Amino acid sequence: MTDEATVFVPGHVTGFFTSDPDEDPTKAGSRGGGIALADGVTVTVTASEERSVTLNGVDIEVGAVDRVVDALRATVAVNAETPLPLGSGFGVSGAMALGAALGTNAVCDRGLSENELVTIAHGAEVQAGTGLGDVVAQARGGVPLRLEPGGPQDNYIDAIPERGRIEYHVIGELSTEAVLGGDTDALTRAGEQALSRVVKEPTVDTFMRASRQFAREAELLTADVQAVVEDVAEAGGDASMAMLGETVFALGTGLTDAGYDATATEIYPGGATLDDA
Fold it and tell me: Is residue 145 classed as helix, strand or coil in its secondary structure?
């Protein structure tokens, strides 16, 4: 038991996904593929007499974090720091939920396993309506392919064995709740087809092509994102849209080569990690 625990959780951009509801939030979720990023979220959990949640020093309400702390029957302060924007497709809420679960377990000596904690965080984010698969992917790292929905007890995860530079360019925000709260049948069909293509040919190039096609078929591609993706293609690069956010991510120097002031990061090979302290 310790008074404070710090967890690093990689950011995560989703290239394509399905929507798979279930009455049990730990079994609900999505299938799909994404990329874990070295730009992530550092979550510090501290024993406290009052519960609080901050993001980059500002008080914030994050439903998934509240549900995690409730599930662990704890009173803690959860402080997150990240260069990533909230609501732009980087899995920040999922990272905060997962970091809160791992950190609270250490601080409050709950004695739960990693899979149990990931399941709690995943179920909390599904219930909060802020994501369907980020938590499971962030626990895995790399370029994970989620072949089944749900938490780690249900979700078989494969991965594309590649590393490399990733650039991203944020245009704005999209409402995850609004998309997931509507008719997701067409989205799910497009996600299934994209996942099938990548499973047959598990390379990052195939992943990017499948992601672009998914964005079009699921009718999620905004005009601004499409314009940036086309600029990258004209410059000889490979880019797609981060789900769900008005954000473009590209392989290598694709965005820079197209003239954009992009942020550079890398594929992060590992999952969420509790610091040794």
Answer: strand
Nearest to 176, CA basis, from 224, 247, 238:
247
Helix (H, G, I), strand (E, B) or coil at 140: helix
Distance CA 125, CA 112 (A): 19
Taken in order 22, 67, 270, 164, is the CA torsion positive or negative? positive
Give me the domain span that covers residue 181.
1-277
pLDDT in tens, 51-76: 999 999 999 999 999 999 999 999 99
Mean pLDDT computed over 196-213: 98
CA distance linking residue 211 with residue 227, whole number of Å: 16
The position carrying tokens 């040794």 is 276
Q: How many CB atoms lie within 10 A of CB 121?
A: 33
As to burial, measured by CB atoms within 10 angstroms (0-12 exposed, 13-18 middle, 19+ buried), residue 251 is: buried
pTM for the model? 0.96
Q: How many domains does the chain have?
A: 1
Give the model confidence (pLDDT) of 160-185 as tens digits: 999 999 999 999 887 766 677 677 89
Question: Average pLDDT in the 185-196 region?
Answer: 96
Estimate to the nearest angstrom the gap between the alpha carbon of 129 and the chain centroid. 13
What CATH number corresponds to the domain at position 190? 3.30.230.10
